[in-house]
Amino acid sequence: MHCAYKNESIQYTDTMIVAKNQNLVLLFLGSFLAQIIQVGTFSLFLSQKLDGLDVSLSLIGWFVGIQWVVVLLLAPFAPFLGAKLGLERLNILSSLVMITGLFAALSEEVWLLAISSVLLGAALIVRWVACDALIVRFVSTQKLGQSIGIHEALMGFGIAAGPLFFIFLTLDQVVYAMICLAVFSTLCFQLVRPQNDHIGREENIAMQKEDLFLLKIALIMALVGGFIETAAVAFLPFYFEDDGFSLQSSAWFVSAFGLGGTLLQLPLGLLADRVGYRLAQLMACLVALLGLLGLYFSGSSFLAIFGTLFILGGAIGAFNTLAVIQAGSEISPKKTASSMAYIAAAYTFGGIVGPVVTSNVLHVFPADAILVTYSIIIITVAVTMLSGRRDRIA
Q1: Is the dihedral angle over the CA atoms 177, 344, 192, 97 positive or is it negative?
Q2: 66: which residues sit within 8 A by CB, 6+ positions away?
Q3: CA dihedral 41, 43, 48, 52 (to 10 degrees)
Q4: Lowest CB count within 10 Å: 156, 261, 295, 339, which one?
């Protein structure tokens, strides 16, 4: 009887491992499809639709920022919702809110487009916190960097895939494509099976002041990543407009930016596992600066711009990836949902300010002034990291 029980126990453990792996695949796929919509497509769609409705460029920046204002406002409540509903159900709720917002985006009324941005923002933060917390729960600490790297690579690919819709589809057709993807994303989240759901109710402990001090650099990195990434997705077509590039050509550039964020995230996750997240963060700053410098000297060469944005997108995407890795490494698992909410809030604050600053800089100054602005911000981050070298380093 003892041996039979032992074998049954081993079989149960193997079953649990398989179930967790299946859940992880479904979680990655659902999150990826949602990312295509929420970050890769919607901001660019909104900016182009508002431009077609003769809304000024500076005002478009505020409309794009609405989505991220909602993310910031709702971030503190996402862990609470996860504790009440369960993280798996929270993802399903996110999808339903997203689909509602996409139907609103079909309207030609500016106020309905604003509501659409609000709903997409709400869906984004709910998915963001739920997915990151579930990933940390499903994997071991030894594979945390690898798993987060895979997830962030898919997030970057979502940014790369979204702009391709604009090459082949009209704006209204883009909305219908987003709705179809949202339905598939909902199905993926529906198939994720709850495991130890009581953990979501018992172990979501709030962050303390000392935890925030440990995450200082992670929060700064996430903020700057959000600042540049969200602005780039929405306003790169306006940046390249002065060089005579059409929306279709600029969509390829935005895709290159996202593609770099895809292919370079897993190597960076593995690098962080090997050398520590702090050195990887410094390397990301250096590569980002080189990318901005390369963009300045790329002229009007399509291939040079495409390659440079690929590198820049990888570096900027790494800002958030490495912030999540730092949070997962430094903070107790019982505070995972709360720490991910803070990272999301920091990225989101950057996502609010980035489009507003970028749109106004492009509206008032020569286009290259935005490259100088981004460079100053990144140099400030690197100097802050170097000056705080006495802090705890992984």
Answers
A1: negative
A2: 114, 117, 118, 121
A3: 120
A4: 295
Residue 339 makes CB contacts below 8 A (sequence gap 6+) with 207, 211, 215, 327, 328, 331
Task: Tell me the residue type at 106.
Answer: L
Rounded to whole angstroms, the Cα distance separating 333 from 185 reads: 27
Alpha-helical (H) ranges within 242-276 are 247-263, 265-275
Least confidently predicted of 78-87, 98-107, 225-234, 235-244: 78-87
pLDDT score for 8: 38
d(CA 116, CA 133): 26
Contact 258, 313 (CB under 8 A): yes
What does each C-alpha distance from 114 to 50, 68, 72 come to in angstroms? 10, 12, 16
User: What long-range pairs does 50-59 form, CB within 8 A, spacing at least 24?
Assistant: 50/110, 50/113, 52/171, 53/108, 53/110, 55/110, 56/363, 57/238, 57/359, 57/362, 57/363, 58/359, 58/360, 58/363
Q: How confident is the model at residue 18 (pLDDT cuts 50, 70, 90)?
A: low
- Kindly write down the DSSP assignment for every residue of 110-166, as one continuous string: HHHHHHHHHHHHHHHHHHHHHHHHHHHHHS-GGGHHHHHHHHHHHHHHHHHHGGGHH
Percent of residues in the chain assigned helix, strand, coil, to nearest 5: 85, 0, 15
* In contact, 179 and 105? CB cutoff 8 Å: no
Using one digit for the tens of pLDDT, what is the confidence trace for 36-58? 998 888 988 998 899 888 888 87
b/e map 34-73, b = 16+ CB within 10 Å: bbbbbbbbbbbbbbbbbeeeebebeebbbbbbbbbbbbbe
Please state, in angstroms and rounded to a whole number, the distance separating the CA atoms of residues 34 and 114.
Answer: 19
**Hey, what are 299's tokens?**
């002229």
